[in-house]
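One chain is below:
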Amino acid sequence: MVKSFSTIRKDEISSLISSIRFTKGSPVNMTEKIFWFTNSVTCSAAFRKMFKD
């Protein structure tokens, strides 16, 4: 079961890294980033769609 979510996790990690890179040296609120990452992975796994803020 966990392996079935590996694609979701990889996609979300890629999005997380991209959003951090986009800040280009500015401070990053990692608590917020991890919160959105966790929510997005959970929603994607549960409902098969992306979580948007």
Remarks:
- Residues 9 and 41 are 6 Å apart (CA to CA).
- The chain has a mean pLDDT of 85.
- The radius of gyration is 12 Å.
